[in-house]
Amino acid sequence: MMIDNNPVLEAIFTRRSVRDYLDKPVPRDIIDKVIEAGTWAPSGLNNQPWRFVIVEDKGVKSQIAELTRYKPIIEKAPVIIPVFIDKQSMYSEVKDHQAIGACIENMLLAVHSLGLGAVWLGEILKNADQVRRILELPDSFELMAVVAMGYPKHTKQKSSRKPLDELILKEV
Length: 172
Ligand SMILES: Cc1cc2nc3c(=O)[nH]c(=O)nc-3n(C[C@H](O)[C@H](O)[C@H](O)COP(=O)(O)O)c2cc1C
Hints:
By secondary structure, the chain is α+β, with helices and mostly antiparallel strands. It has one domain (20-152): NADH Oxidase (3-Layer(aba) Sandwich). The chain is built from 7 helices and 4 strands. Helix 2 packs antiparallel against helix 5 (93-113). The relative contact order is 0.22.
C-alpha cells in the first residue's frame, strides 16, 4: 500500500475550490478529458445519468451568471460546464443523485490534476429551470450543478475539515 507519494491521495488532499481565473482559454482536449473523467464515476446499474453542456460563449455565460449570487465567478471563468441529470435514464432518485455527485467530484479532481482550478456551484440551482431554458434543453434534463473552471489566478486557497474523531461515530 502506497500511503505516501500517492498521486490520487495527493490530488484529493490538495484540491481546493478555485473561484478566480486568468483570462486564458482552456484547450478543448482538457475540457473533454475533464468530462471524460466525470463519466468514469461509478453509477448504479452503470446507468450513467450525467449529461454536460460546455459554455464558453460570453453572452450565454453572462445570462447564466445573472441567475446566481456567484455571478462574478461565472463571468470570470473561461468555461463553465452545467451538469444535468437525464431524468429518462434514472432508476432511483437517491442513487442517481449520488452518482452525479461522484461524477462532479471526478471532474474537480481531474481539473486540479491538470493544473487548472474549478468550483462546484450549487447556489444557482434555485434557478435550475431558467438555466435549462437558456441552454434550450427540454425538461427531461434537470440541472445538478455548474462547474466553473479555468487557470487559477493564484493557488493560495485554504480550507479545513473537521477532525476524524468528530466524524467517526463509533468503532465496534
Ligand atoms: C453541493 C455543493 C454546492 C456548492 N455550491 C457552491 C456555490 O454555489 N458557490 C461557491 O462558491 N462554492 C460552492 N461550493 C463549494 C464549497 O463551498 C467548497 O467545496 C467548500 O467550502 C470546501 O472548500 P474546498 O472545495 O476548497 O475544499 C459547493 C460545493 C458543493 C459540494
